[in-house]
Amino acid sequence: SLGRETVGGYLCDKYETEVKTNGGSVKHYMWIAQKLGMSIKIVSLDNSFSREYRDIKEGAVPDAVFEVPPGFIKMNVP
User: Fold this and answer.
1) Distance from first CA to last CA of the chain, Å, rounded?
2) pTM score, two decimals?
3) Less Cβ around it within 10 Å: N or C end of the chain?
4) What is the DSSP annotation of 33-44?
């Protein structure tokens, strides 16, 4: 860990990560919220990419969110 920082009101552990790509790699800083146990912010060291979750609402997710929508047709791809 590179230490702790607060992001969006959540105490986070900050890490440096590396993602291998075709013929190369990209390094990122990633903030993992201790309370949530998940990444809420990621920024590439070259600033070509970033993502941050904001306005996080904690709580249960209704079962209906995981139901297959009406009219859904499964497509088989070889």
Assistant:
1) 42
2) 0.75
3) C
4) ETTTTEEEEEEE
CA distance 30 to 42: 4
**41-61: pLDDT as tens digits:** 999 999 889 999 999 999 999
Q: Residue 28: what residue type?
A: H
Mapping DSSP to helix (H, G, I), strand (E, B) and coil, where does residue 28 land?
strand
One-letter amino acid at 67 equals E
What DSSP assignment string belongs to 36-70? TTEEEEEEETTSS-EEE--S---S---GGGGSPPT
* Residue type at 34 in one-letter notation: Q
